[in-house]
């Protein structure tokens, strides 16, 4: 089993600081969602892991030791820009790429057909890549990353341009590979998808990692919010110390209210609301990854 880590990566392009001390690790069987705006440093980090670029300083580690060319050859890499031969047939191309990674002719051919079938392009094996739709080209690109049973996966925007059915197929494949012990790093702007399939998430902004953790860890805050639906107005909230009403509005027979507190488990909020009348709904208002991303990036930008 493999742990893939980057430690204190720095990289500049002219006067632009592309990476500023990027550090994170991905363990065996873990899907790591890597998110950030365009130009934040995701692709540069992935290229350094793969040896396409060299860092100004910092390290890429494979099980705690500096990564070698041999170990990089066991990583399935999917670049954002398609790295396929456009005039080559799909089947021949996948077989060729599998052979480059050490598979025998028979094993390479079988792996090419197996992954093409799994990804829904088995009927296109004799077609030139350039004649496929962009979505099917994306499936071929993923098959190329998987065809030699890699020990780790690094995928730059693998869901770009895919229809919902293809997104589900690719999501299942990544989860299957992780379940088999493969560490997976993927970048995406589809934050709802990242939230759904990732074990941990890293948010990068202007070349710096501004948040790393599980969704629950990223949701942790000293100012939680609580949602209530009750048959009364929010006059009771004024009795709560260190609390404020974020939003309120009428519903059928009552009011829907969001309260922000300074810490606590919400029981004081519920108790105060119950003194004013019945409460039909009470829950913690947990932010989605989109909200977390917006918050940490804006905080980093304004700091």
Write the layout of secondary structure elements.
Elements: E1 4-13, E2 16-26, E3 31-35, H1 42-50, E4 57-62, E5 65-66, H2 69-72, E6 75-78, H3 90-100, H4 105-118, H5 134-146, E7 152-156, H6 164-179, E8 184-187, H7 191-197, E9 200-205, E10 208-213, H8 215-219, E11 225-230, E12 243-251, E13 254-261, H9 267-274, E14 279-284, H10 289-302
Parallel strand pairs: 3-8, 3-9, 6-7, 7-8
Antiparallel strand pairs: 1-2, 1-4, 4-5, 9-10, 11-13, 11-14, 12-13
Helix pairs in contact: 3-4
What does this structure look like?
By secondary structure, this protein is of the alpha/beta class. The chain has two domains: 4-218, Rossmann fold (3-Layer(aba) Sandwich); 225-284. Helices cover 33% and strands 29% of the residues. The chain has ten helices and 14 strands. It has helices at residues 42-50, 69-72, 90-100, 105-118, 134-146, 164-179, 191-197, 215-219, 267-274, 289-302; strands spanning 4-13, 16-26, 31-35, 57-62, 65-66, 75-78, 152-156, 184-187, 200-205, 208-213, 225-230, 243-251, 254-261, 279-284. The chain has a six-stranded mixed sheet, sandwiched between helices. α3 (90-100) crosses α4. The longest helix is centred in the middle third of the chain and has 16 residues, at 164-179. The protein is elongated. The chain starts with a strand and ends with a helix. The relative contact order is 0.14.
